[in-house]
Amino acid sequence: MEEFLYLAGVSSYYLSENKGKQKVNLKLEKEKDKFAPAKLREDAAAYLALMIEKNPQSRYKDEAEKILKELQASK
């Protein structure tokens, strides 16, 4: 479960930064709502915070905390 939350959080973070292989077409109304950068950043923060809360000894904790700090700094 911790790996899923980590991957979901990192994936949302990368999509919000327009990084990675998956490209989002924000011209389409359906994708504009679903993949809005602000929503993706909120999702990423929620997934990563939940992962840290539920698995404080996780091997992904350090990277998750680093991304959370970046997300909080960009608010």
Polypeptide structure, described:
With 75 residues, the protein is an all-alpha fold. The protein is 69% helix and 0% strand. The protein has one domain. The protein has helices spanning 2-16, 29-34, 37-54, 61-73. Helix 1 (2-16) runs antiparallel to helix 3 (37-54). The longest helix has 18 residues, at 37-54. It is elongated, with a radius of gyration of 13 Å. The model has no long low-confidence stretch (mean pLDDT 92).
Key words describing this protein structure:
0% strand; 4 helices; 75 residues; elongated; single chain; mainly alpha
Shape: elongated
Tally of alpha and pi helices: 4
Beta-strand segment tally = 0
What's the helical proportion of residues?
A: 55-70%
Q: How much of the polypeptide forms β-strand, as a percent range?
A: under 5%
Uncertain spans: none
